[in-house]
Amino acid sequence: MSIFYYSGIFLTGLxxxxxxxxxxxxxHENIKISTGRSICIFCHRQLMWYENIPLFSFIFLKxxxxxxxxxxxxxxxxxxxxxxxxxxxxxxxxGVEPFVLTAPLLRDWILVFxxxxxxxxDLRYGEILDGPTIPxxxxxxxxxxxxxxxxxxxxxxxxxxxxxxxxxxYLISSGKWIGGGDIRLGLLMGVILxxxxxxxxxxxxxxxxxxxxxxxxxxxxxxxxxxxxxxxYLTAATxxxxxxxxxxxxxxxxxxx
Length: 257
What we know:
GO molecular function: aspartic-type endopeptidase activity
GO biological process, one term: signal peptide processing
Number of domains: 2
Structural class: mainly alpha
Low-confidence stretches: none
Strand content: under 5%
Protein name: Prepilin leader peptidase/N-methyltransferase
Number of strands: 0
Order of helices and strands: HHHHHHHHH
Distance between the termini: 45 Å
């Protein structure tokens, strides 16, 4: 039975990955997500149902539009596969009984999807929107209190550290180092992670950013003056800290003893 359960989760993740790709594109193009079927972004032809099956259609079409033969971006299958794997691993990590949907698992799937949207949108367009950050943070804050996911003290300290750090950088640099989107994302990170896991995420984000930036400079893909979509590192670090934050802290404290 668990095989069917986890297979269903994987397929669900593929479907949400496909939806995520469409949502990111339509948000940027100011197209309602409920308007019409998916289209080819090159020739604007509406796709048939068999051209819109997550992952499998990309393989079937050999990565090209059936009409205009333009190359379909690898973003689409990679996002679909990535979200499917993350949905699968989240359910496996939390160890819920097959065919049982718990509140924490539903919360984590929603947060993972939301973080994936922020990651992809910032990577593609260099912007962090209000929608996936502030409303999500408010809802999660008030749901966390009665359900016992986080204490209000932990979340408020997390908000102060996450949003405060980026607000400080924004003010002293007059917005040259950090954008307003990073402040809003820092607020969301504080609510998701609380204290002290927010410290793990911030540290990891700067480590990820530094390492990847050095690799890009070394590979001559960018230079030291180039802007970097820091929201991608913050969202990736938040995901890691959600599941491994306490273990990382305990490992670090153990080294100090």
